[in-house]
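hey so u asked for the seq, here:
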Amino acid sequence: MKNLLIATALLGSASFAAADSLGLSGTYNKGFYKADGDSIESDGSFGVGLSYTYDLDAVSAVRAELELLPNLYDSEKLGFGGEFTYLRSVMTTGEADVYLGGGLGFNTVSDSATSNGVTTSVRLTAINPTLLAGVRFAVAPGFNAFAELAGGPSFLRLNASSGSTSVSDSINGAFIKPRIGFTYTLR
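ran it, structure tokens below
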């Protein structure tokens, strides 16, 4: 009986040490790019993200997120994005937890049209190494709210083709991405 209680306690502590959570967030993505010395003007894009976070231990976690980004890069098309991030708690006070993180994100949008039998297509893809700072706090049992500010360099690639002609170009810049949302702890 004693061995059973010890085994149950060990399994219970192992399952509480790592927690899975699902999150829903709203973001605003704004890129700042220059090409040939001129700034490229583009409105930011609001997005909605769904994330899965796995706590590695008491202070660190990894998060994978997928995003839908309407009107990405002023395209009037639905863009897609994602981010894989490592998060580390740096300060906990009461119910609030301040954390820092880093990772890699991407977003992409494409469009195509056919006119006079010629198909023209354009794809914009950005790779975004990301640094972030955030705070999360408990709002109800199992629920946490969070606010983050992320940013970093951005490497934008344009691929365009029309008939048998294709063009590609790369533009470097930076991005900023505030995010608010909530998570629900699964276990």
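The chain has one helix and nine strands. Residues 148 and 164 are 44 Å apart (CA to CA).
lmk if thats what u needed
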